[in-house]
## 1
Amino acid sequence: MYAPLQNDTFIRACLGQATEHTPVWLMRQAGRYLPEYRATRAKAGSFMGLATNTDFATEVTLQPLERYALDAAILFSDILTVPDAMGLGLSFATGEGPKFANPVRDEAAVDKLAVPDMGKLRYVFDAVTSIRKALNGRVPLIGFSGSPWTLACYMVEGAGSDDYRLVKTMLYSRPDLMHRMLQINADAVALYLNTQIEAGAQAVMIFDSWGGVLADGAFQSFSMAYTARVLAQLKREHQGVRIPRIVFTKGGGLWLEEMGALDCDVLGLDWTVNLGRARQLVGHKKALQGNIDPNVLFANAPQIEAEVAKVLQSFGTPHQGGGTGPTHVFNLGHGISQYTPPENVAVLVEAVHAQSRHMRK
Amino acid sequence: MYAPLQNDTFIRACLGQATEHTPVWLMRQAGRYLPEYRATRAKAGSFMGLATNTDFATEVTLQPLERYALDAAILFSDILTVPDAMGLGLSFATGEGPKFANPVRDEAAVDKLAVPDMGKLRYVFDAVTSIRKALNGRVPLIGFSGSPWTLACYMVEGAGSDDYRLVKTMLYSRPDLMHRMLQINADAVALYLNTQIEAGAQAVMIFDSWGGVLADGAFQSFSMAYTARVLAQLKREHQGVRIPRIVFTKGGGLWLEEMGALDCDVLGLDWTVNLGRARQLVGHKKALQGNIDPNVLFANAPQIEAEVAKVLQSFGTPHQGGGTGPTHVFNLGHGISQYTPPENVAVLVEAVHAQSRHMRK
């Protein structure tokens, strides 16, 4: 059905297999820092107009690949599509973040929640299939979802938050309600990701963007346990091909050792984590993805190259022989800033490829 | 000059000495969640009107002690007084955070920076002396400052930030400028805290509120190194009495072992850190302060008591014999929310005292 993969460096590194260079892709690589993205978005009229239109979503997903030798593409979509399909009414006001018209703040609202009909998310699966075809085997396509806890944050807060007061109030005062919501979210996310895999996604990533705001103990019970519930339901392969599973908890560095027990292939790390130490803790069990500070991209070329070197050297030389071993997927520690000069991304991608090839010699 | 200390539980715990209960105070304990604070602030007209008026600052500092059996008072002030005295023009617009009229964004602006004349901060030292007198030995008074890095964040950004783009751009592209600014900040903070000690502060705390946004490596060079530079200049005692020094890095849990080498008495921890693990790592060298999630205060009384128990049990029984050993100062992991019901703070403080007394039996 699809063209064979020409560059499988990313997939191999995810699965702990040797590669000739360290693969690199960037969270939010199809985004506002690219003038061609802004042009397509202007045509689409709005963020959701862009995400729900198969042609536009395909166009913007491929844009960064035209500029940079990235080793993976990631579906252009939003982490909040699932609660939108649950009927919460997602919108994006200009200059602001996402908003839900119907936040979930009491038992009656939780009672109404259910795993949504995947038909309501058909625009996502259509985009996956369209992008996979358009990629034509160039690089693999990553599908994704927000984690159950991260979805719950937005579902309760109704928008972004700087203190997570409402969602944590529910967590501490009505843990029973929170657990019910998280179970539904986990089952919905698992179904959503499996349907993305059937539609053509060659790897999947769970973004636990707000796991790091939880207290020790609460993280394990309210975030990690439900990420595990998603992973337990995910397809390991599709049509005989392995589908790597990536978990990224922003601010989760303190729980890395515990996350080593998750049934996934890759752990994503933000820039606060020392990659060498992470490799010692979990590198024998998982590939590691990350973790340069996106603000490095505001420096000049020699400084970007020096910071790339620090990250690569911190991980050390990846596994190079037969079988599997510690491997590294280079990425930012968070989404790329909309203010990033596009030419600096080229410097970063080239530095990762050149330096990581050199390290293997 | 001052009345003798009647309750020195906090000071003893800071210094690793045995206490009959775990002392407790709360970051931002004199704040907007208290109706009496809001009344005084209304009289003062503005936040800085409150902070610069000795009588008002004394009044609000003592307010939470009237309601709760807290074991320490903390100077009512702001972490940004030092850059204000450097001429950056601090203001607080209603409903917004702090703002600087003259942010520091280029070499010319850094060239103009210098350790400010402490005369410009006289309102702070007058408040310290006035509060110390008004406390009349009831509990000790903590003085404080922002850390060199945290001050630099505000000085460059000119306000709060969610991505620290401007300050990190300077850090990555002009590390020389950033180091110059941080040296000046460190020397200014040291002088500021020493002058607070001379004015009557019985302990001092360095708030590294934004240390946790730095990448591994950058934290050590741009935050911790300058906290160390402050500590190296701080008075260890005043008039023959030891002055405990507390360092709190929000989001710094990953660097706890390295922070164990800092020349201070106490490390403050946020709620992401497992206290038991922290005790294993650094408890033999430092007292630990923290770390309940302030959002616990939105639950009801039995749940607050249960969460207090978790934090106390996570630390375990503190040192109880002669000499010094692992000790715990109970606190929130961050400032108290303005939306906190005041009666819930009473539940927390009583639970800490009662449960920690019980644990020692």
## 2
Amino acid sequence: MDQEIIARLINRITAAGLDAIVALSPENVTYVSGFVVPSQSLMRWRHAACIVTSDGKISMVAIDMEATTVKAHAGIDDLRIYREFSDDPMDKLAEAVKDLKLDHGKVAIEMEFLPAKDFATLQKNLPNVNWSAADPIFNKARQIKTAGELALLRSLSKLTDNAIGTALRSAKIGMSEMELAGTLLTTLFAGGAESYKLMIIASGERSEFPNVGPSARKLQHGDIIRMEIFGQKSGYLTGVCRTAVVGDATAEQYKIWSNLIECKYLVLELIKPGASCPEIYRKFLEKFGQLGFDPISFVAHGIGLHLHEEPYMGRYGNEIVEAGMVGAFEPLVYIPGRFGMQNKDMFCVTDKGCELLSDVTPTDTLLRVA
Amino acid sequence: MDQEIIARLINRITAAGLDAIVALSPENVTYVSGFVVPSQSLMRWRHAACIVTSDGKISMVAIDMEATTVKAHAGIDDLRIYREFSDDPMDKLAEAVKDLKLDHGKVAIEMEFLPAKDFATLQKNLPNVNWSAADPIFNKARQIKTAGELALLRSLSKLTDNAIGTALRSAKIGMSEMELAGTLLTTLFAGGAESYKLMIIASGERSEFPNVGPSARKLQHGDIIRMEIFGQKSGYLTGVCRTAVVGDATAEQYKIWSNLIECKYLVLELIKPGASCPEIYRKFLEKFGQLGFDPISFVAHGIGLHLHEEPYMGRYGNEIVEAGMVGAFEPLVYIPGRFGMQNKDMFCVTDKGCELLSDVTPTDTLLRVA
């Protein structure tokens, strides 16, 4: 547990006039406990939950199967274990709420995660609780990283960037996207990542598709390769994307790449405390618009325990940049029927400006591989 | 889309007296559409949904960001695209329900997945729909695999088994669990897997912990290594676990391993159409009980689009084995404060008995590595 995180949550609980909040999603259970319950994100009925009260009490609910793992790592004294198959985890959670004398209290829970069936069980067990949505409270708290979170995200950004650069530089004509995936993951894990999310390896005609994983497609001369991955450690994520060309790019592709990198430096310059998120997007659009392709609806988003967090810097939303925010910006083009190019960099907001966290693989010149 | 799957679902919809069911979880959207919507499982607000009506109409809801990918791969004509940030996917889903003239209908939806907030939106938009739980219908349908599903699961089982065997045989004193992870994933991806779930690499004193990923821990003489992974392709999963010893095992460890492998062959013999799932577990317990360690509450579970599916063969539940079921059995011990050993094999139920799908890495003798 990070005591600074708990203190910040208690402030927000109090400010919202609540008696407690309940973390239920994998990312918020990790946020409170500092620990990743291994199978929580794999099987949605294997619920885990953390309750934080306005007076600083913390309770946790976890499955019997992983009781030893949770006990050894989470360091929460009030740990309540339910039996898979024969106990309903919501009954155990309701029991904890009652023991904390919150059964007539104001309790916020993650309504965007809590399944409808489980909410019905809670309402039945706790008819006098005044339920509200905890999602905005957690989302807002998680935007500003602690020193511990920032150190982890910084080193993980470099590690992820290095793995992508290493994998792209290993690319050769005739190699499959799957083989590139092997090199990417070997480098990522050897560097210390524990997991990953959203591995995109899209070459040639596949490069135009957002969010597609590696296939058996073999590299050919002239292919564009878009490679993105979110490395994961202790539950935290960092996303980096690089683009390479097999052999030589066309003049148009070089021109697009130059624009995307100009956008990178523009956004890096614009992100600073006090800046308006939609204004950053508008200024990005002016530069990007020179290419004449359709933009996506954002150029940057927050990252931490989830691969997309608020604030978005885009067409929607109206947030102000604050010191301690961490995220990624990603100028990109997807040209239907042709190809796609994308560059994604991790940043954190400092007191005065913006620090580039993913500074390992050079991007100023489009990477050429053989 | 697999027409056999759609036909089976329509039978179940009709038998349940429903007008339609709505798939909303990643696994059930893939079950209906035959396609993995890339970022659905990564960001829970990026909902995707498939409606199947009792008269065979199919509609799909997907996000604008991935419209091109879904259009190119899912092959569903009635595809409704919502805009991220400005549209609520539940409004789009409600619109589809109305267009299908189901707004006074009996509609089952996944109550164990649908977030409480989204259910409230649907209820507001569709006050006259008679909602019920679709979860048991999908779970039951998915238990019996089609020929296409079985072929995929068979080849993926061998691929996963081979990757684990290859990684374990590469183990050497001084190598870290992370390095083993690299070899495991390289082999898995090079073989054709697109993703994976639940990579367990637990050596030495870590081998007693269920469901822990690789760490920086370096292999030492005498370590037990438990290695499990679920390889994933086209959304489908196969889980295999093997155990190895670095150097030489103790007499007790050899004895445990012999028992686990006797359990393997016992369970393989017991699984056949008509067998009772809890009875298989009871017979397993008789053999396993000779060791004197605590068992977990099941010895086998179904696998397919989810890494744990019904039926469980365990202390709870009362299902009967049927031809076409696919799953894994996994005799294991976790000895607190000491070590753990585990062997997990994929099987499918044939007309007369049980086929071992993961038959690549020999298990009869405990694998010794240097």
